[in-house]
Amino acid sequence: MSTGTRVEVATLLGLGLAEPLARLWMAMTAMPGAGATDLAEQLGIEETEVRRYLDVLADRALVRVSQQTPGLLVPITAEAALAQLLRQQEQELAEQQRRFQEKRDQITRTVTADLDAGGGVGDPAQRVEHVIGADAIHSRFEQLAYSTTQSIDSLLPVTGLSEQSLADAWPLDTELLRRGVKVRTMYLEAVRNDLPLLTYVRNLQAAGAQIRTSPTLPQRLCISDRRIAVVPLKPGIRGYGVAVISAPGVIASLLELFEAVWHHAAPLDVGNPVDTATGLSDTERSLLTLLAGGTTDETAAKKLGVSLRTVRRIMADLMQRLEASSRFEAGIKAAKKGWL
């Protein structure tokens, strides 16, 4: 390529481009002026497939019509392609976050309405049980764990758990795994900075649980056998109480929320992945997005599960990399670089 920027198929895949599209785009850059017939021969696929993939690349603005040869599609430059893919990925993430928030608001409204209406009376399938107090909540989780037969799916945006809390949780978790229950759990990326919790999570993974991490998580959630869920009545406020829900409509929404977050989370052993196009880790990108949206340092620290000092250290490092003398200037430069 004339730009001098080297792009690998793995980079395009990492930015969300499907493999057939990535390989076609790479072939087009390696064979300037090639038509659909030549590209099909080079890739070993049907010409009709090439034309279909070209339509998709055009929809994603990764190819354009040649100004020199009418009707010929040519790839945009490597720099433009990376920036375009990154923007599209950020837009998808923003849309995903918007849907997460909508679902959380919908679930909160449903739970509140059921409680206000005296949930628990009438059809058991629609019951919402309100559990208050640490001992009562732990007992309810015990009952749930020993009655689960197929799966437990959990979002746990927590760090700094006490040794006693971890010791109380271990028998429940291992009992589930011993009985062959499929356990999928997501933690914050910040779990890697919490040695006791990280040790617990690694032991849990070694025992057979599937573990993933994300810079942020929408709320605490536990779903048993895809039919009973436990959610906080006031997300972000510990000790307020939990709701145990069995209403099918709410469960369906919570499962959709879990699967969406799980799909975008990273396996525990991957670490805090770094975007090859920008050099940003997931945590750094999430922090930039939070602060650009007006979130305070203190709130950002809570959402990321890290200390206020860590937030300020990460931000100072980003300002240095951006050669910015203020956060305002850093925001402008980050936006120009396509980091936001």
From TrEMBL:
The keyword Coiled coil applies. Residues 79-106 form a coiled coil. Keywords: Coiled coil. It comes from the Bacteria. Pfam families: GerE (PF00196). Residues 273-338 form the HTH luxR-type domain. The keyword Nucleotidyltransferase does not apply. PANTHER family: HTH-TYPE TRANSCRIPTIONAL REGULATOR TRMBL2. This is LuxR family transcriptional regulator.
